[in-house]
Amino acid sequence: MPRPLALVCLMTLYVPLCGRAADRPSGRDFVTRSPAVSRHGMAATSQPLASLAAVDILRAGGNAVDAAIAANAVLCVTEPTSCGLGGDLFAIVWDAKSQQLYGLNGSGRSPKSLTAEVFKEQGLTSIPSYGPLPITVPGCVDGWIILHERFGKLPLSEVLTPAIRCAEDGFPVTEVIAGYWKAGVAAHREHPGFMEVFAPDGEAPAHGQTFKNPALGQTLRAIAAGGADAFYRGDIADVIDRFMRDIGGYLRREDLAAHRSEWVEPVGVDYHGCRVWELPPNGQGIAALQMLQVLKGADLAAAGFGSADHLHFLVEAKKLAFADRAKFYADPDFSKAPVDALISPEYGARRYAQISPTSAGAAYEPGNPALRDGDTVYLTTADQDRNMVSLIQSNYRGFGAGPCPPGLGFCLQDRGELFDLTPGRANSYAPGKRPFHTIIPAFVTKEGRPLMSFGVMGGDMQPQGHVQILLNLFEFGMGLQEAGDAPRVRHAGSPTPTGDPAEPNGGTVLLETGYNADTIEELRRRGHQTADGDGSFGGYQAIWYDQEQNVYFGATESRKDGVALGY
Q1: For residues 323-348, average pLDDT
Q2: Within a domain: residue 7?
Q3: Residue 543 zone, left/alpha/beta (φ > 0; ψ -120 to 50; rest)
Q4: How many CB atoms lie within 10 A of CB 55?
Q5: Are the CB atoms for 510 and 421 separated by under 8 Å?
Q6: Structural domain containing residue 57
Q7: Are residues 448 and 531 both part of a single domain?
């Protein structure tokens, strides 16, 4: 078990960036703060008001699911650059009563009236990033309702009250979010309805500026009163339908009315005496499990954190897993991936044998796993009854597609961009199909009991980030906050489920500050192309349940605006 650092009640503490991390009394040089610790409940999110809302709900008698929904709703108001009611949702819930994990796939499908012929007629070989064509059914709100109906404790109206207040009374915009907001306004200035909602004064709100979204407050009030029907089968659905017709889009009331979230079985692999859990496709969570199975062949603990061997084997394992991701991961209703085989120890060992310990692989072909047949938010909450929630929610590409239906206060997602327009592949576009998804929650159990709820948001970085957190904890002996603060690596250039081929010469290894020059030089000698980091290294939150001491530890991402709060 990772060693706890200095114990801090109520909230994590920031270390001024002008100071040296080595000045801290404990932890490694790169540690930015101490983990939170509490007895009764914990929340870790990427924005302080969301963490506060979750803890307030817990203190009011709500459970971890209530707190997670409350936090997500507040993030839809305060961090619209990453999530919103127009996006999708995935969650893993540990239910203390049944002592079981439950997985929820809250992703929406493509419009039934949008056929592949439409893209062909427009001469498109890939789906655009913005505008009406990549818009799919928003799954977030139904995800909230399904979670609440099964596990919630407080009335939905009470759970959504903090978000409604933030929207109607206003909130001060935090620093990192302000930067993304500015970039979003530059990207979406011409999209219908966007400026009216997110830049009514003509510019993005600045850091510290109070921003209000009364239209979103009214939408949340309608959901609080009418649940999923209000959003998918009522006036909100009518507004979305009319708006999509007006802008030349294809999403219709019938698509919204037909949407339902799906309970799915989490899948896991054994790792260091624990079991690591992810959700099956159409998400990419099993890529993290594949990487872990491959990396069991390498002695990373002996190599040490930040060594050339550590980074070399990590990057090569990623390349192998992502080659399979490009071929197999898709909506299981249309193309069933061989999940059990892909995450098996035998297949992991076979893939590990393909790695040269001294040279980078330029490219890897997808394997044959049939062994016998030949801009996102992540949050986590925990309550006094030891229920825990791992939840991730996103618009994709920041604000999403750009168009904002009038009077509703949110953008519609552009998740449909992640379909492949080449016919005959697992993730090929089809009407009524769920696209390949990047957003993935994760969970760890030990001996059938909850240990850690965690995630690392950020597109292709997510499975890479999950694995790096787990290596930091279990191979390199870091604490919960240390594991997130440690410098990260991100490999770019693998083939994608949208049909993009692998980049030549093995792609690029991007490195955060903190790796020594000798390590970087050795990676280059082995054939890796390296580059300085570009800021795209994800956003981590985690809660660890220490059964011996009967307390929670909470950690949050130093690269974001968030905090971990407990009571």
Answers
A1: 94
A2: no
A3: beta
A4: 26
A5: no
A6: 32-88+106-259+389-418
A7: yes
| Contact by Cβ (8 Å): 450, 94 | yes
pLDDT in tens, 466-505: 999 999 999 999 999 999 999 999 999 999 999 889 988 8
> 322 and 350, same structural domain?
yes
Separation of CA 220 from chain center: 23
Nearest to 441 by CA among 460, 463, 412: 463
Residues 117, 139: one domain? yes
| pLDDT, mean of residues 286-304 | 97
Residue 483, Cβ neighbours under 10 Å: how many?
Answer: 25
Look over the chain and give the mean of its residue pLDDT values, rounded to a whole number.
93
| Bridging pattern class, strands 539-546 and 88-95 | unpaired
What is the per-residue pLDDT for 376?
Answer: 81
Burial class of residue 246 in the structure, from the number of CB atoms within 10 Å of its CB (0-12 exposed, 13-18 middle, 19+ buried):
middle
Helix runs in 296-449, H state only: 300-303, 308-328, 339-342, 345-352
Would you call 376 a catalytic residue per the annotation? yes
Query: Are 411 and 213 contacting, i.e. CB atoms less than 8 angstroms apart?
Result: no
CB-based contact 314:487 (threshold 8 Å):
no
Chain segment 373-426, per-residue pLDDT in tens: 336 889 999 999 999 999 999 999 899 999 999 999 999 999 999 999 999 999
Taken in order 334, 335, 338, 339, the sign of the CA dihedral is negative
Number of Cβ within a 10 Å radius of residue 447: 9
Contact 388, 381 (CB under 8 A): yes
> What per-residue confidence (pLDDT) applies to 375?
66
Please indicate, yes or no, whether residues 394 and 463 belong to a single structural domain of this protein: no
Q: How far apart are CA 553 and CA 41, in angstroms?
A: 10
C-alpha 142 chain-centroid distance: 18
For the chain, report the end-to-end CA distance as a whole number of angstroms: 23
Q: Alpha-carbon distance 153 to 156, whole Å?
A: 9
Going by the annotation, the residues of the binding site are 459
Say yes or no to pLDDT of 347 above 60. yes
Asked whether residue 439 carries a pLDDT value surpassing 80, the answer given is yes
Q: Which residues contact 552 (CB under 8 A, 6 or more apart)?
A: 36, 37, 38, 39, 41, 42, 382, 543, 544, 545, 546, 566
CA distance 400 to 45: 20
Q: Binding site for L-glutamate, residues?
A: 459
Q: How many domains does the chain have?
A: 2
CA distance 285 to 267: 9
Does 351 share its domain with 475? yes
Distance CA 383, CA 340 (A): 32
Catalytic residue among 45, 161, 219, 376: 376
Q: What is the pLDDT of residue 364?
A: 84
| Rounded CA separation 167/48 (Å) | 15
